[in-house]
Design a protein that fits this description.
Blueprint (H helix, E strand, L loop, with lengths): L17 E3 L5 E3 L7 H7 L12 H12 L1 E2 L6 E2 L5 H14 L3 H25 L5 H21 L7 H21 L16 E4 L9 E5 L2 E5 L13 H11 E2 L4 E2 L5 E3 L4 E3 L4 E3 L3 E3 L4 H26 L21 H29 L4 H10 L3 E3 L4 E3 L7 H8 L1
Antiparallel strand pairs: 1-2, 3-4, 5-7, 6-7, 8-9, 10-11, 12-13, 14-15
Helix pairs in contact: 1-2, 3-4, 3-5, 6-8, 8-9
Length: 402
């Protein structure tokens, strides 16, 4: 509550964003978006004092936590990683439409920045909505330009518009199905042969615990031995060490893996996708369907745009040579066609890797582990990683996957 106070004493100074108003109340200039103590420590360099290492990150955390929008049942937090694509993508694409050289520079820098951000987030194992926001907004923005810039020219018929719209809707539906449960591994109480109940604080051990008030039930060991291994002491210890997840505190089934970003184990885990979702046994087929639908829709949409803005050029090289396009208002459409082609090329490469892995019955996680442990054979300049563990032939591998 606000109260009238005297001017601050020397032992109780004002922080950098605090002041005493004309009524004698102590106020904060940035009370809506900062914590005064954290902000004061972050500005120690202005007072020529040593600055703490985490002072700036704490201010950013407070601002991120307090940046919310009103909602029916309380204010909802706004994820800052969603905002950059909404602002930068239209600006950069319109900037690239000004001149050919500017377009080359922008379309070169943009993928580099996206790859750099992916490397940073992947290295820190942090969750981000940047790539999901970029994907959804790119799809919506390309469709918006298709309706407002290409369709009024009269070169696109009703059937072609319905085809593009249907492809986009099916892609979004498949993406929504992909983001469902990838197949998280859940604890099975029948795997534990004995339990012990603790009423105090547990030590940090590799045990499965469930809190029930002050009572904690702990599973001591697993009843089932890992598949394909004996029951001897040495073999059982190696199997438990290999299949026991110390984070989830469960016994993992064969070919499952722990995702450090989702903090969960996933059946037949392939990888953690940039759409902020794991790809595992339950959604792997939907993931491939999403890639296939997007590629077909994107290629068809690019061909319609190029046929409209470069009608005299062959579609095979209209993307590389379209005379006079930068002297017309269609330069933005041409730039967006280039941007869509870059995205399509990257996702086509991802689809090819997925199809190759399925043909050899290996997941992306297993391929990385095989390369790290030098237990797999590489072919075709590293595109194929054959572990030789689960493959049973091309047709059988695909039947098992489908």
């Amino acid at each position: 509550m606000r109260g009238k106070v005297r001017p601050p004493e020397p032992d109780d100074p004002l922080c950098c964003c605090e002041y005493v108003d004309r009524q004698g109340d102590r106020q904060h200039m940035a009370a809506c978006c900062c914590d005064c103590e954290d902000l004061d420590q972050a500005c120690d360099w202005l007072k020529r004092q040593p600055q703490k290492a985490d002072s700036l990150s704490r201010v950013i955390a407070v601002v991120t936590d307090r940046l919310r929008v009103p909602w029916l049942r309380g204010a909802k937090r706004v994820e800052l990683s969603v905002v950059p694509p909404l602002v930068l993508l239209p600006v950069l694409l319109r900037l690239a439409a000004l001149h050919f050289l500017v377009g080359m520079a922008v379309l070169t820098i943009l993928p580099v920045l996206v790859l750099w951000y992916y490397y940073v987030t992947h290295r820190r194992k942090g969750r981000t909505l940047f790539f999901l926001s970029l994907a959804l907004f790119s799809l919506a923005y390309m469709y918006y330009l298709f309706l407002t810039e290409v369709l009024p020219r009269g070169d696109v018929g009703g059937a072609q518009l319905v085809t593009v719209t249907t492809g986009m809707v099916l892609t979004l539906i498949s993406l929504a199905r992909t983001k469902r449960d990838p197949g998280f591994v859940k604890a099975c109480p029948s795997d534990a042969h004995s339990t012990v109940t603790y009423y105090g604080r547990l030590s940090e051990q590799d045990e499965q615990s469930q809190s029930n008030g002050s009572c904690q039930v702990v599973a001591i060991a697993s009843r089932a031995a890992p598949p394909g291994q004996g029951t001897g002491p040495a073999t059982q210890a190696n199997g438990l060490k290999k299949n026991w997840c110390p984070t989830c505190r469960i016994m993992r089934p064969p070919r499952s893996g722990h995702c450090r970003i989702c903090s969960a184990c996933v059946y037949r885990m392939d990888h953690h996708c940039v759409i902020n979702s794991c790809v595992g046994q339950a959604n792997h087929r939907n993931f491939l369907l999403t890639l296939l639908l997007f590629l077909l829709t994107s290629v068809y949409g690019i061909s319609l745009v190029l046929r409209s803005i470069c009608p005299r050029q062959n579609l095979l090289y209209a993307l590389f040579y379209c005379p006079g396009v930068y002297a017309q208002y269609t330069a933005l459409c041409f730039t967006c066609a280039w941007y869509s082609s870059v995205v399509t090329g990257g996702l086509f490469h991802l689809l090819m890797l997925q199809l190759i892995n399925i043909s050899f019955n290996v997941t992306e996680r297993e391929a990385r582990l095989a390369l790290r442990e030098k237990t797999g054979r590489t072919r075709l300049w590293g595109l194929v990683v054959d572990t030789g563990l689960h493959t049973r032939g091309f047709c059988t591998n695909w039947l098992e996957f489908l």
